[in-house]
Amino acid sequence: MQIKREHWDDGNLENYKPETMNMMQQSALKMKSQTEIQPAASTIPQDMRNNVRIVELPSCKMVTSGPAKSEDAFAPGGKMERFDKWATEYDKQRTDRFYPRDFMWSPVSGGFEWGSAVDEVPDDIGGFDVIDFPGGLYAVAISVDADGADHDRVYNEILKWVNNSGCFVLDENGTRRSMGNITSPHLIKEVMGYQQMDLYFPIRIKEA
Questions:
Q1: Statement: residue 1 has pLDDT above 80
Q2: Which of 37, 46, 44, 27 is nearest to 139 (CA)?
Q3: Rounded to whole angstroms, what are the CA distances from 173 to 79, 115, 202?
Q4: Mean pLDDT taken over the chain
Q5: pLDDT tens by residue, 14-40
Q6: How far apart are CA 198 and CA 185, in angstroms?
Q7: CA 59 – CA 174 distance, rounded (Å)
Q8: What is the DSSP letter of 43?
């Protein structure tokens, strides 16, 4: 997006910022506030330093399926199947493939919700919802997709890691939920026999 010359004279470029610049500015302000926190001392053992990785997701707009109750969430023709078709078609417009932009979580009301981050809200969102995703820090580890036992193992390991870290605390609320997304390409399932799913736990820096 270019700012037209005739707009320069009004002295207010805020009205002409592309959405991505606004998101970058918000992320920068968040990072500045975090650096001002006096963090508590880390107590992460040497042998557990690489068990979990810490990432920061940017705030953004997300098109979401909206909440879907577990009993019919993935039924043929149901909300999740329709959202999958919409998100797959929308994702084809991307020029990069550095990381997946879709996440699934359990909303406060229960069931499942599936969301896809967008740079700008498209004209056609398939009748789905749009939310403001707050972003922030997350503790992340890999599990085996569709393997309940492995999911529970990784889930509990992340919880234990965060609680014993000394420098992070869980920060789950109505807008920041524990999430998951499949990170491996679809063809990998044919090679390995399964797909990898990242599990995300919202966290914040623990103050001293």
A1: no
A2: 44
A3: 24, 17, 9
A4: 87
A5: 554 556 566 666 666 666 665 578 899
A6: 13
A7: 15
A8: -
Sign of CA dihedral 181, 184, 187, 191: negative
- Strand boundaries in the chain, DSSP class E: 53-57, 60-64, 102-105, 113-118, 129-133, 136-144, 168-170, 179-182, 196-205
Contacts of 138 (CB under 8 A, 6+ apart): 54, 55, 56, 57, 179, 200, 201, 202, 203
Cα 111 from Cα 116, distance rounded (Å): 17
Q: Report the distance separating Cα 134 and Cα 55, nearest Å.
A: 14
Per-residue burial over 85-103, b = 16 or more CB atoms within 10 Å of its CB, e = otherwise: ebbeebeeeeeeeeeebbb
Report the alpha-carbon distance of residue 43 to residue 132 in Å, rounded: 34
Distance of alpha carbon 201 from alpha carbon 176, whole angstroms:
9
What is the distance between the alpha carbons of residues 127 and 177, in angstroms, rounded to a whole number?
A: 23
Q: Distance of CA 56 to CAs 53, 90, 152, 201, Å?
A: 10, 24, 23, 11
Q: What does the alpha-carbon distance between residue 129 and residue 66 come to, in Å, rounded to a whole number?
A: 6
How many whole angstroms separate alpha carbon 121 and alpha carbon 131? 10
